[in-house]
């Protein structure tokens, strides 16, 4: 303006501005210059520092101040514009005009600078601090900034709404924030106490207090693991004061709805604990007698006929089996070995009646079969297959942290920050699995800042362990709410989020791996994890590889039953084949026996004729009920045997048997574990729902101790197939991809399976785990399964010869046979 007024050409223009705007012409000119400089800076840094609303507010504020000066001092310096503005006030009492204009100034200031009550309190405390003389502690002078323990450590209980003291703490929350000592917070450096470069506490306090509550948006640079300046901009967080004011309030006062809020979690947990004193339940003598009937107290009814059902024949033979089931009586009738067939009246549906019926049917013949079964001193002539039977995986590409992955990690971080969610994705939190990549999002928050003595910059406070101390933390639920936004920016077909990943301090975001590859069963079985597992249990199964590419194995003996569900084509049959192959690769028929039910008729047919089968693969739904009844009868027979011997389970029985063997006592026979595999439960449940449900539950409840295990698969995860009873009794579950979250909840009691990718991508929920684990299932081709089955079928002849069977009769037996004739080969290995 001075130049304008002085220059001859522009003099008139300058005069006009001065006449029209008065003194405010200087202020406006200064404002325009500042505006231009700031805009230039913004374009250079590609950041926004000033808001349009703020510019507008400042102009209005300037005009109001001009008006007020006109009202106070008259038309001397205020200019023509002020005269125009003051016209409405002519004739009013001067006091009214002043009050009105000053009031307007206050209102516009509040809106322009977005001033909140928190700011007012902060200014109040700041002034109070300056007025009050705060001596610095000598000890604190020596203390390095940031190495003291976090003042937020152990703070939570102060805010618990259940303690009386906490109410006061909540009311005086701002006092705590300002470092007020009256609440007895841990003695850690508060802002006013932190040492400054100059060593003057008051000056340092003034500087620190000025910085965190800026009048415009500002950026706080803090060192959170990035070493170079190039990483600097990625680590920049734009902070809006009002955003934080809101968050603070919300996180402390309005989080009742949040299921992840630790107070709500705590409430949930304590609600599960039964309260009060309960009277002991009186013993029900009838129940007790029923439960113990058939055990030690009672003589066993071994004189009854052998037969249980007219479809399935219980067969004893001088081979190595205590019990053999054959679902094809005609084929079985033509085989050597004594078979007794007797029709029984209709078996009622109730499991209790089934039990009674079956108990009566276990006869002296069975006892004979046990006595004649494989004597332990005979060394097994079975050979286990070599791993060459299975296909080797393609040369595995080393999955490394690529530029693509780094770019995705940055994209996630930037997206979260654009939504004002402070979080970071570290390189070490990225897991690259065979089919998916998991990014770990660590919720961070607003760090507590101090002035660094050396550089004079604001740096975050660190606690004794070097961790950044946060003033406010990001809530996990805020990250979870951005699931769809993340899926959008990552252009992923489907993403799945897990919060938090069990045992890790981050939220997992799983996206499909573009370089996905098959996980072959052979690489799983070759792994040291499986080798270690199979030493412990003959029922170890290779499941696949997890999101970090680590091999995952399971133990069917511990599960003790497994439910597999998923949409059609999701990979259930391949999983069942992998389970069977895992067993066939490590266990001989002396260790494990199989019973298979395959209503689809094509999935398990290839295993017909292998010596592990107790019965040919059952494809007719009507025969399944008979098969399950026989399994229950076998279970009860084993229970009685255990009861007589005083052992609790199959493991105890095996220990006792090996003890007796060392003493030369060969009276105890080998009892193999039995795995019952049902490929489609829905078909059975449609045919005889109550009967099947009752028998599956009975087996599931009691069969574990006797070494009988169930593997049940279904593609219909509805409540009429996977009933509450079945779910309650089969605790270990695998869910492949399903079509809806409801289906997912039916299987694993929580959503997530609807976001799987199919083709072997599964969620595995072990019995003892609260959350499922994502695994890429091991793949076994039909050719491999065929080769494995053929390997075992070929051994039947050698084994029969080794047991002293007639070579001519053995040669005449077909080696591989379809369902109808497989009983011959199964029977053969017993002779
Ligand atoms: N672990 C796996 N790895 C790679 N691909 C797999 C895997 N499991 C299954 N697939 C692919 O998915 C296809 C379908 O698998 P599968 O036959 O096991 O499905 P399903 O769930 O049994 O279907 P349905 O219920 O209709 O029988 C397979 O042919 C195979 O190509």
Automatic annotation (TrEMBL):
Domain FtsK span(s) in chain numbering: 548-745
Residues binding ATP: 566-573
Molecular function in Gene Ontology: ATP binding; DNA binding
Any matching Pfam family: FtsK_alpha
Region (Disordered): 182-210, 279-352, 807-831
Matching InterPro entries: AAA+_ATPase, FtsK/SpoIIIE/SftA, FtsK_alpha, FtsK_dom, P-loop_NTPase
UniProtKB keywords: ATP-binding, DNA-binding, Membrane, Nucleotide-binding, Transmembrane, Transmembrane helix
Biased composition (Polar residues): 185-196, 813-831
Keyword presence, DNA-binding: yes
Transmembrane portions of the chain: 16-37, 49-67, 95-117
Similarity-based family: Belongs to the FtsK/SpoIIIE/SftA family.
Protein name: FtsK domain-containing protein
Protein source organism: Dictyobacter kobayashii
